[in-house]
């Protein structure tokens, strides 16, 4: 763990400072109080992949995501985004927080939330132009929410709120998307809409990482997995890494072997 | 001159130079307080601004003592404002430090800082009163505000600082909106959340110190919070909300100052706050968007639509109706007779309702991901949500189904 080099999935040794992969993490530790929520986790996400971060509740999946983006302070570890510090690669990254993290009674319409994704490109002083609004509408169109543009966000269902958050991230036009539990508590139509948008992003050569909780959909939606339970358990392609053995190690006794048998594992 | 006469002439700035000055100053103060307060309200940090305002008191006392020690009057307003700004900035940073570095929550930090600073300030005021400077009278006016004998230089100070605060709000509106709505996301887009929070509270600080003279430190938090809360009843967007909050704050300050000038024994700060509360009360009751009456009315109408629809569907299925409200609604709209039997109109309406239900059932299967399905509330006539072509297509599918069954 303390070596300066990182061993990538292929067995090749990668120097943190020279890789330009969308995400390279070495020895990331984040703690709330004196108990590490994430302890010395390594990860390396190749470009154009779709990775699910999997682990039991309280295993530090969301904290790992926030730690890589500097939303929560790091205790130790190195993070490189496209080979750079996050602050230097910020405009290539879009983050979709958990839906429950905000107050949906906030005075904003759907379109206002999506326009927030354009704050970075509009700047502090300039006013909104029709092209910004068109851009935002295109993003809403992609998630099937264009008809809701003028609705107050408090009137949306959970799935619709999630799609608005995704549209805001799309407005950033990033190369690397990090989503925190995008499928948690959403309806089937929303799940289909989000998956198809994420697959479009992948087809465009962009990179996607999702904190994910539904093991049964992992092979269908993702091509790579990162298994976390405070420590990193395993990382790699679904075919080789999403195995009963690794899941048992990640979830411990919390995942009945009968449940594992139902999954379509490699 | 009677109170009413004086009030009316003061309202139109005809009651003399001094009261016009005070009214304009208070209006500008309310304007900046309302717009700055909008973000503090959205960020849910009203109580932090209360700590800031109470933390001004030791600064006022110390600034007075220092100015007297250097042989000046001691009541020079810019000096007192600088002193209060420094001590409330220290209070604000202490709240922030306690919250960040210890495991205490923000409310505990606010309670501690607020009471300690205020207590220290009261001790200083008492010491000043026993000092033999002889000119100390008036410092206690900073507690509840007083506009008697306001100088043009003081009004000018308030006007300039108020305009500065309003400009500050305009410049920072985007990052402040983002931080208030979704701080974690804001951090990932490069907004320094801590600095924006400090800037937001810095605005509260500016408003507080310029409001010391007119509203006083105890009640300034009301002028920061009541206008945005009032504005929230009228709009669902941040931009208009800031505008309305600024207008409510400005009007409250102006009208309150005029009222208090009309009857010299009325303290300015409390009167301004009561006027603001009047705006709040009217909005809470009568706003068509989020006011209490409109909400109750909407709920009642919605309930009636639901009962009517349920009743018609029961008629179509020839089920008995027992619900009193449903029966009353159907009877009053001529759908059923007194004895509960459907009229001709009722039968037609019931058939239409049943047909629309069947159409929606098909639509849900045909267009599972269409937003029209998501927007459907179960009550709106299908013609208002789908095109005639779509409905015709659905009807063809229903016919095909019936044909298959037969």
TrEMBL record, chain A:
Keyword terms of this UniProt record: ATP-binding, Ion transport, Nucleotide-binding, Transport, Zinc, Zinc transport
GO molecular function term, any single one: ATP binding
SUPFAM superfamilies in alphabetical order: P-loop containing nucleoside triphosphate hydrolases (SSF52540)
UniProt domain ABC transporter: residue ranges: 23-255
Superkingdom of this protein's organism: Bacteria
InterPro entries the UniProt entry points to: AAA+_ATPase (IPR003593), ABC_transporter-like_ATP-bd (IPR003439), ABC_transporter-like_CS (IPR017871), Metal_Ion_Import_ABC (IPR050153), P-loop_NTPase (IPR027417)
GO annotation (BP), single: zinc ion transport
Family: Belongs to the ABC transporter superfamily.
Protein name: Manganese ABC transporter ATP-binding protein
Organism: Thalassospira profundimaris
Lineage: Bacteria, Pseudomonadati, Pseudomonadota, Alphaproteobacteria, Rhodospirillales
TrEMBL record, chain B:
Its membrane topology: Multi-pass membrane protein
Keyword field: Cell membrane, Membrane, Transmembrane, Transmembrane helix, Transport
Keyword Transit peptide: no
The UniProt record lists the keyword Transport: yes
InterPro entries for this protein: ABC_BtuC-like, ABC_TroCD
Cellular component GO terms, alphabetical: ATP-binding cassette (ABC) transporter complex
Domain of life: Bacteria
Signal peptide: none
Membrane spanning residue stretches: 20-42, 51-70, 76-95, 107-128, 148-172, 203-226, 238-259, 271-289
Example GO biological process: transmembrane transport
Main localization (coarse): membrane
Protein localization: Cell membrane
Pfam hit, one: ABC-3
Family annotation (Gene3D superfamilies): ABC transporter involved in vitamin B12 uptake, BtuC (1.10.3470.10)
PANTHER family, per database record: ABC-TRANSPORTER METAL-BINDING PROTEIN (PTHR30477), METAL TRANSPORT SYSTEM MEMBRANE PROTEIN CT_069-RELATED (PTHR30477:SF3)
Family: Belongs to the ABC-3 integral membrane protein family.
Record-given protein name: Zinc ABC transporter permease
Species the sequence originates in: Thalassospira profundimaris
